[in-house]
Design a protein that fits this description.
The structure holds two protein chains of two kinds. By secondary structure, chain A is an alpha/beta fold. Chain A has twelve helices and 14 strands. In chain A, a hairpin with a 2-residue loop joins strand 12 and strand 13. Chain A is elongated, with a radius of gyration of 23 Å. By secondary structure, chain B is mostly helical. In chain B, helix 4 packs antiparallel against helix 12. The radius of gyration of chain B is 20 Å and the shape is globular. Classes of the chains: A alpha/beta, B mainly alpha. The interface between A and B is medium-sized, with 33 and 25 residues.
Chain lengths: 336, 281
Amino acid sequence: MPAIEIEGLTKHYGDVVAVDGLDLTVEEGEIFGFLGPNGAGKSTTIDILLDFVRPTDGSATVLGHDAQRESMAVRRQIGVLPDAYHVYDRLTGRQHMEFVVDSKDVDADIEAILERVRVLEAADRKAGGYSKGMRQRLVLAMALVGDPDLLILDEPSTGLDPNGARQMREIIQEENDRGTTVFFSSHIMEQVEAICDRVAIINRGRLVAVDSIEGLRDATETTTTLTVTVSGADDDVVATVRAREDVASASLTGDQFVVTLGPEGSKFGVLQTIDAAGATVEDFSLDESSLEDLFVEYTTPGQEVEPGELDSRAGEPGTGGPETGPATAGSSGGDR
Amino acid sequence: MSWTAVAKKDFRDAVQSRALWSLLAVFVVLSVVLSYSYTEFPALVGGTEQATVGGLVFFTSGIVSLFVSLTAIVVCYKAIAGERELGSIKLMLALPHSRRDVFVGKLVGRTGVLSLALAVGLVVGLGLGSVLLGSFEPVPLALFLVATLLFAVVYVTIVVSISATTGSTSRATTGALGFFLLFELLWDVVPLGVVYVANGFSLPAQLPDWIFPLMQLPPSSAYVLVLNALLPDLADAAPGGAGGMGFDAFYARPELGFVVLGFWLVVSLAVGSYRFVNADL
C-alpha cells in the first residue's frame, strides 16, 4: 500500500489553476521530496492531503484512506508541520504539546520529544515569545507526538539557521530509520538532495519530474550548456544546429546562442557546425549543470527544452515538460 | 469526543485575554454600583417604594443582557475567523478533529469563559444586593442565573457562528457588530417599518398583534421574556418586568422567549457549521 497516492488531482481557485492534473505515488518507508518554486502548487497539494482544501477534481489517498472522506483516519496516523501556521501566542510550549496528546488521545513523553527538538528549556514559556526557529521546532515536536506512520512537512526548514536545518534533517532521518514515511516540500534543492530517496519536481501545478536523486544526477551530469557569442547567425543556423543528434536544445537571443548538449555531445562539433552554417563564432563559455540548475531548468518558464528530452527524465510518460510561453496566473516563475 | 480537547485548549487560550478581564472588571463595578443604588433608592429606578429581590433581578437583567452581548462579541468574534486568518487553525485541523468538533469545542470553550466571567460578576453584584436587602432568596436567584446562562449560550453561539462563516476577522467584526446594531439597537423601528410597508405606506391607528413576536426577535428581548416565564411572581411585582401583553394570542405568552432563543440557536448553528465545514481554509 502506497503512503500517498494522488491521481489526476486538480484545484481551481476561480480562474486560477493551483494544481493541474497531478499524479504522484509515495511508497511506504521512503523520504520523498516535493520540490517546486513558490506558488507551484505544493502547499495546495498538501492542504488537500490534510482536507484543509477540497479538490476540484481527482483524488488523493493517504495510508489507504481517502483524504477527503476519511480525513479523520488519515489525521490519526500522520504528523504534520503545516505551512504558514501560527502558534497559540498565549499558550506555553508544554500546553501546545498537551493539546496534541489530548487530541490524538495517545500517551507520549512530552519532555523527551521537546528535548529532541531542543525547546525543552522553553517549555513553560508562552509560545508567542518564541523565535521563528523555536516555533518551527515546537510544531515539529507536535508532529512527532504519537509516533505517526507518515510525516507531512511543508517547508520544514523555514526560519531555521543552517545548524537548525541540519538538526531538522537528522530528526527526519531518525524518524525514517524507525520506519516512518516522510513527505516534505521545499523550494530549495540542496535541502532535498541531502536526505531524499526520491524527488518530485512540480511547476505551475503540474508534475515535471519524478526520480531518485541518483536518477536526477545522472540526467544532469551529462548535460552541458554551451553559450556561444555569434555574429551573422539566423534561424537557419539555429535549425542546422538543432538538427544535430547530440543537441538537446538550441536557442538564439541577440548574439547569444545557447545550446544544451546531450550525454554524448561534442562541443567542438557544435562550434564547427555553427561555423559551417555561415555564422562566426566570436566567443563561447561552458556550463556543466548541477542538480540546482536542473531544478531551475524545469521550473523556469520560457526555456526551450525539447519535450522528448524531459519525458525521458520525468520517468513517467505523459507528465510533460515545462511549457514555453507566458506564465499563467497563480504560478510564479521560480524564485531564483 | 475530540471537541473536549479543543474546548480545553480554547478555554486556556481565551481566559488569558486581557479584553475579557477588563470587561469583567467593568461589569463587577457596574453591578455593585447598581445593586447599591437600587437597594438604597428603589424609588429612583422603579415605581415601588420597597426594594425587593424581584426588582433587583429585573433591574440587573438589563445591564446583564448588555454585558453578555458585548462580552460575547469581544470574546467570540475571532473564535474561528481569527484562527483561520492567522493560520493557527492548521495546527488544530492537522490533528484528528473534524471541523464539527472544532466548532463545538469552540462553542463550549468560549461559553465556559463567558460563564465564568458572568458568574463572578453576578455573585458579587447579587450577593451584595442580598446583603443590603437583608433577604436571601436562593430559588429566584438560581433561576435568574440559569436564564442568564441560557442567554449567554445563545449569544456565544450566534457570535461563534458569525465567526465561522469567514476567514477574515474584519468581516467577522463587521458581522458581529452589524448583528448587535440591527437587533439590539435599531430593532424597535424594524417591525414598525414592516407594518408601515404592509399597511400601504402609512401607519395604522392600531398596531396588529403579529408585531409582538417580531418585536421579541432580539435575543435580549427573548431573555427578558424568559425571565418573565421563569419568575412570574417577581415579574408582576417588579417595576422592570414586562407584565401582561395586553391581548390574547397563542404567542402572547412569555414562553415565546424560549422559542426565540431556540430559533437563534438552531439557525446560527446550522449556518455557522455549514459554512465552516464546507470552506477551503
